[in-house]
Structure formats: structure tokens, C-alpha cells
């Protein structure tokens, strides 16, 4: 009986590890495709004369706004996500910080997804390609 349980645990462990590896490979492939979309967007924005603007970040509670060292293009009207002029994807939410008030917020790029907001639970999901196209079509009159 113990041999059967040990064999079952080992089999289950292999299945879980295999599923985790497949999920990680899928995420990496998705990030690569999304990064290609972002790179293409930056080139097309330059062709259309859309200059990158200074990006700001908001505190998680939404009460404070912080400057950053980044320049790029906001992708949503609420300025929660952006693509930097370095073709990387940024989520513009940070913890509230007195230091950031004076020195600015430090942002690190996030792995891009093909569907912005996926897994967030707030119901505001949109394909990245659609957001990028919408931003390009808006031109310099972006909100």
C-alpha cells in the first residue's frame, strides 16, 4: 500500500512539474510576442511623429502621483499602464512613499501580456494589440 502511495505521489509530482514547465513556456512565448508588439508600436509612433511624454506613477491608493525618470506613451486613459521609449511595458502603480515624493518613483518593467488586465479580476481586460492601435490612432490628442 505504501509503495502505491509513493508511486502515486511521484507521478503526481511529475505531472505538476510538467504542467508548471508548460505554463512557464507559454508565458515566455506570450511575453516575446507582446514585446514584439511593443517594439513595433515604438517604431510606428516615431514614424507618426508621436513624441514620448514624461511618465508618472500613482500610489496604490490613488492619492499621490509621482514623477519617474521614464518617457513613453500611456496606453490607457487612466494612465495605469504605458510603453516606455525603451519598448518595455510598465505598470504605473507604486507603493506610497515619502522618498518618491522628493526623488521620484522607481519603476521596473513588467513582463508584457497579450491581454492587458488578464487575471486582475476587475473586468477591464483588453488585447494589447487593440490598446496599441487605439493609442496610435488617437495621435497627439490622447487624453
List the helices and strands and how they pair.
Layout: H1 2-47, E1 53-59, E2 65-74, E3 81-84, E4 89-91, E5 93-94, H2 98-103, E6 115-116, E7 126-127, H3 128-138
Parallel strand pairs: 1-5
Antiparallel strand pairs: 1-2, 2-3, 3-4, 6-7
Structure description:
- With 143 residues, the protein is an alpha+beta fold.
- It is built from three helices and seven strands.
- It has one domain.
- It has helices at residues 2-47, 98-103, 128-138, and strands spanning 53-59, 65-74, 81-84, 89-91, 93-94, 115-116, 126-127.
- A five-stranded mixed β-sheet has the order 4-3-2-1-5. A two-stranded antiparallel sheet has the order 6-7.
Distance between the termini: 67 Å
Largest sheet: 5 strands, mixed
Helix content: 40-55%
In spatial order, strands of the major sheet run: 4-3-2-1-5
> How many separate helices?
3
* Number of DSSP E strands: 7
How would you summarize this macromolecular structure in one to three sentences?
This protein is of the alpha+beta class. The protein has 3 helices and 7 strands, in the order αβββββαββα. α1 runs parallel beside α3.
Amino acid at each position: 500500500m505504501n509503495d502505491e502511495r509513493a508511486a502515486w505521489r511521484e507521478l503526481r509530482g511529475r505531472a505538476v512539474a510538467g504542467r508548471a514547465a508548460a505554463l512557464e513556456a507559454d508565458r515566455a512565448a506570450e511575453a516575446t510576442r507582446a514585446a514584439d508588439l511593443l517594439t513595433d508600436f515604438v517604431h510606428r509612433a516615431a514614424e507618426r511623429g508621436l513624441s514620448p511624454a514624461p511618465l508618472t506613477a500613482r500610489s496604490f491608493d490613488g492619492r499621490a502621483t509621482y514623477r519617474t525618470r521614464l518617457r513613453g506613451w500611456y496606453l490607457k486613459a487612466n494612465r495605469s499602464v504605458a510603453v516606455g521609449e525603451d519598448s518595455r511595458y510598465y505598470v504605473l502603480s507604486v507603493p506610497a512613499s515619502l522618498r518618491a515624493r522628493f526623488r521620484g518613483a522607481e519603476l521596473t518593467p513588467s513582463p508584457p501580456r497579450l491581454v492587458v488586465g488578464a487575471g486582475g479580476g476587475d473586468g477591464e481586460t483588453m488585447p494589447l494589440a487593440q490598446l496599441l492601435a487605439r493609442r496610435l490612432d488617437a495621435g497627439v490628442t490622447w487624453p
